[in-house]
């Protein structure tokens, strides 16, 4: 069976833990693992912009002994309407895995359903599961584990990061609270799925409006841009309703004294997070960014092994 990673809950709790353990080992001994030696190639395709995802997959595939093929889809037929099913079939003849950043989750699902190699979600409108593996690795490092820790995500609770925090956090046994203004609440189906997962892991899930209620006593406070890629011209006011959700010193005063702060980057400094917080002692943001590399190397290795 081919194992894809389209959503955070495509790894069950034991599998997620295995990937995070491997990521920690790969971080400690960075060049010791070469499962892509050959070199085997991996296609990394972007329908949207990227800095971290692009470079961390490119570098990570090279470190695994492989050959990264990083492509902006606008210069390919993929970006001008070629059948996604055909693209999935064709690319599978060339490469060991396909990494894709795209718009709708239906697009990546269509590629995956016709691919005969693992397909990895490098961000869609719905989810950003590779980011969450890096975030959970960071929480393990800074908080000594994930089980039972309180994670608050504040801001646009309807976006891809919010959904991934719900699913991946519940999978990791965390108490996940997401808070956003009315109209920017998570998809109820995602909340329901996360609740079901939490029942089995000892975690919990809450979707809130009040940012202070979300952050109270939190071990981890996370946020993200209030305007995701593709939402720039959606006609919604993406500033005013979000102002109470800014991660600043006043909001963090309600968190645990040893709280860490996460942001997937890029940040809109002065909007969803202040410079003082992002550059201050509670920020784990740059460890989090580094951990994209280690987590994705482990994920690729795991999926390739599990698929054979
Ligand atoms: N966090 C993240 O995915 O960054 P990029 O958009 O730069 O890849
Ligand atoms: N929610 C953001 C994350 C960027 C890494 C977006 O989709 O643009």
TrEMBL record:
<dbReference type="InterPro" id="IPR002292">
    <property type="entry name" value="Orn/put_carbamltrans"/>
</dbReference>
<keyword id="KW-0808">Transferase</keyword>
<feature type="binding site">
    <location>
        <begin position="128"/>
        <end position="131"/>
    </location>
    <ligand>
        <name>carbamoyl phosphate</name>
    </ligand>
</feature>
<feature type="binding site">
    <location>
        <position position="101"/>
    </location>
    <ligand>
        <name>carbamoyl phosphate</name>
    </ligand>
</feature>
<feature type="binding site">
    <location>
        <begin position="228"/>
        <end position="229"/>
    </location>
    <ligand>
        <name>L-ornithine</name>
    </ligand>
</feature>
<dbReference type="Pfam" id="PF02729">
    <property type="entry name" value="OTCace_N"/>
</dbReference>
<feature type="binding site">
    <location>
        <position position="224"/>
    </location>
    <ligand>
        <name>L-ornithine</name>
    </ligand>
</feature>
<dbReference type="InterPro" id="IPR036901">
    <property type="entry name" value="Asp/Orn_carbamoylTrfase_sf"/>
</dbReference>
<protein>
    <recommendedName>
        <fullName>Ornithine carbamoyltransferase</fullName>
        <ecNumber>2.1.3.3</ecNumber>
    </recommendedName>
</protein>
<comment type="similarity">
    <text>Belongs to the aspartate/ornithine carbamoyltransferase superfamily. OTCase family.</text>
</comment>
<dbReference type="GO" id="GO:0004585">
    <property type="term" value="F:ornithine carbamoyltransferase activity"/>
</dbReference>
<feature type="binding site">
    <location>
        <position position="160"/>
    </location>
    <ligand>
        <name>L-ornithine</name>
    </ligand>
</feature>
<feature type="domain" description="Aspartate/ornithine carbamoyltransferase Asp/Orn-binding">
    <location>
        <begin position="148"/>
        <end position="302"/>
    </location>
</feature>
<feature type="binding site">
    <location>
        <begin position="264"/>
        <end position="265"/>
    </location>
    <ligand>
        <name>carbamoyl phosphate</name>
    </ligand>
</feature>
<keyword id="KW-0963">Cytoplasm</keyword>
<feature type="domain" description="Aspartate/ornithine carbamoyltransferase carbamoyl-P binding">
    <location>
        <begin position="3"/>
        <end position="141"/>
    </location>
</feature>
<dbReference type="InterPro" id="IPR006130">
    <property type="entry name" value="Asp/Orn_carbamoylTrfase"/>
</dbReference>
<dbReference type="InterPro" id="IPR006131">
    <property type="entry name" value="Asp_carbamoyltransf_Asp/Orn-bd"/>
</dbReference>
<dbReference type="InterPro" id="IPR006132">
    <property type="entry name" value="Asp/Orn_carbamoyltranf_P-bd"/>
</dbReference>
<comment type="pathway">
    <text>Amino-acid biosynthesis; L-arginine biosynthesis; L-arginine from L-ornithine and carbamoyl phosphate: step 1/3.</text>
</comment>
<feature type="binding site">
    <location>
        <position position="292"/>
    </location>
    <ligand>
        <name>carbamoyl phosphate</name>
    </ligand>
</feature>
<dbReference type="Pfam" id="PF00185">
    <property type="entry name" value="OTCace"/>
</dbReference>
<dbReference type="InterPro" id="IPR024904">
    <property type="entry name" value="OTCase_ArgI"/>
</dbReference>
């Amino acid at each position: 069976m081919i194992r894809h990673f389209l959503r955070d809950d495509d790894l069950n709790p034991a599998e997620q833990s295995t990937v995070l353990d491997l990521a920690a080992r790969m971080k400690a001994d960075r060049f010791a693992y070469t499962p892509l030696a050959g070199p085997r190639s991996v296609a990394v395709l972007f329908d949207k912009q990227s800095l971290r995802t692009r470079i961390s997959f490119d570098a990570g595939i090279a470190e695994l002994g492989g050959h990264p093929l990083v492509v902006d889809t606008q210069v390919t037929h993929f970006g001008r309407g070629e059948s996604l099913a055909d693209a999935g079939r064709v690319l599978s003849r060339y490469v060991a895995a396909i990494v894709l950043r795209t718009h709708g989750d239906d697009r990546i699902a269509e590629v995956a359903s016709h691919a005969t190699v693992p397909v990895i979600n490098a961000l869609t409108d719905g989810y950003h599961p590779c980011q969450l593996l890096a975030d959970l690795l960071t929480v393990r490092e800074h908080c000594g584990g994930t089980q039972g820790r309180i994670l608050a995500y504040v801001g646009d609770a309807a976006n891809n990061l919010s959904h991934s925090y719900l699913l991946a956090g519940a999978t990791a046994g965390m108490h996940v609270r997401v808070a956003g203004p009315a109209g920017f609440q998570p998809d109820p189906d995602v909340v329901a799925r996360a609740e079901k997962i939490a029942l089995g892991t000892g975690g919990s899930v809450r979707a809130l409006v009040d940012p202070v209620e979300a952050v109270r006593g939190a071990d981890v406070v996370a946020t993200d841009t209030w305007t995701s890629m593709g939402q720039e011209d959606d006609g919604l006011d993406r500033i005013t309703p979000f102002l109470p959700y800014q991660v600043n010193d006043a909001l963090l005063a309600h968190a645990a004294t040893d709280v860490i702060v996460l942001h997937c980057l890029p940040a809109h400094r002065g909007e969803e997070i202040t410079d003082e917080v992002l550059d201050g002692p509670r920020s784990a943001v740059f460890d989090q960014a580094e951990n994209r590399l280690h987590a994705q190397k482990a994920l690729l290795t795991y999926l390739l092994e599990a698929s054979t």
